[in-house]
Amino acid sequence: MQPDYERFLGIARLAADTLGVAVARIERAERIKGGLTNESWLVTGAGERVVVRVSTADEAALQIDRTSEGRVLAEVQRAGVGPEVLRWHPEGRLLVTRYIPGTVWTREDARAPDNIRRLAGLLRQLHSLTVPDDIAVVDLPMILAHYWATLEERGQADPPSRWTRDEMRAAAVELSVGSQRSLCHNDAHHLNVIDTGRLWLLDWEYAGLGSPWFDLASVACNHDYDEVQRRQLLRHYVGDESPHALSRLQLACRLFDDIRKLWLAVRAG
């Protein structure tokens, strides 16, 4: 039996078990491209379409809290900004959600002026949610410390940065202390946006209670926004594109870029 066919059968069984049908009723399982920490499949059968996600990440090294992710998924499903969860088994690294039949954005979609407005509105809705306090806190200084410690243990050098560690730490403290904590996605990448006429966000594994500025930075940095686009994002999010607001976003963007470089270095190791 070919390995690819064995994998198909394994994914088909997971989907069939979730839907409560015989595996023979699963018609198709297609690997979804993208995703650096998970293996995801779109499965069709029994009149349903579901997404089966299996984690392939070193979750401890990459600071992924699956227990908190499950709580976040329940909240964003309830709020109508995240997918419907059909099966959640963190110990088995398994998540099955109902497929959202929409368009996955491209980088160009995320840079279009009207879509910047829509993304700002989606994040404003997310950040206004009242959620349980047992969701993990996204502690930016602790994340930096953990990534640095992991690299040191492995004998890896820090990735290049315009900042020293002390400057990064100071920026992380400023954003953490100077912001009201909100439920944040923290990886608002276009591949995580589904457009059905309204917007949905996928891939909540780095979500938690944190700084809205860092969440806005994920949008700006993931799509290489220039200053004009960053001002548009601010105008639609807070109605304020003043020098102070822009300065806060620029600070968050520099920190987001450096944390992303650290994440990539830890993942590569």
Question: Could you characterize the architecture of this molecule?
Answer:
The longest helix is centred in the C-terminal third of the chain and has 26 residues, at 243-268. The protein has helices at residues 3-19, 66-79, 107-111, 113-127, 140-154, 165-177, 212-222, 227-238, 243-268, and strands at 26-31, 38-45, 48-55, 85-89, 94-98, 103-104, 182-184, 193-195, 199-201, 208-210. The mean pLDDT is 93. The chain starts with a helix and ends with a helix. The chain is α+β, with helices and mostly antiparallel strands. α5 (140-154) runs parallel beside α9 and α6 crosses α9. The chain has 2 domains: 3-98, Phosphorylase Kinase, domain 1 (2-Layer Sandwich), CATH 3.30.200; 103-268, Aminoglycoside phosphotransferase (APH), C-terminal lobe (Aminoglycoside 3'-phosphotransferase, Chain: A, domain 2, Alpha-Beta Complex), CATH 3.90.1200. A hairpin with a 4-residue loop joins β4 (85-89) and β5. The protein is globular and about 60 Å long.
| DSSP helix fraction | 40-55%
Task: Give the overall form.
Answer: globular
Q: What is the radius of gyration computed over CA atoms, rounded to a whole number of angstroms?
A: 19 Å
| Quaternary assembly | single chain
How many beta-strand segments?
10
CATH architectural designation of the largest domain: Alpha-Beta Complex
- At the fourth level of CATH, the homologous superfamily of the largest domain is Aminoglycoside phosphotransferase (APH), C-terminal lobe
Q: Main beta sheet: strand number and arrangement?
A: 5 strands, antiparallel
Secondary-structure element pattern, one letter each: HEEEHEEEHHHHEEEEHHH
List low-pLDDT spans.
Answer: none
Mean pLDDT: 93
* Amino- and carboxy-terminal Cα gap: 33 Å
Number of separate structural domains: 2
β-strand percent reads 15-25%
CATH class of the largest domain: Alpha Beta
Structural class: alpha+beta
CATH fold type of the largest domain: Aminoglycoside 3'-phosphotransferase, Chain: A, domain 2
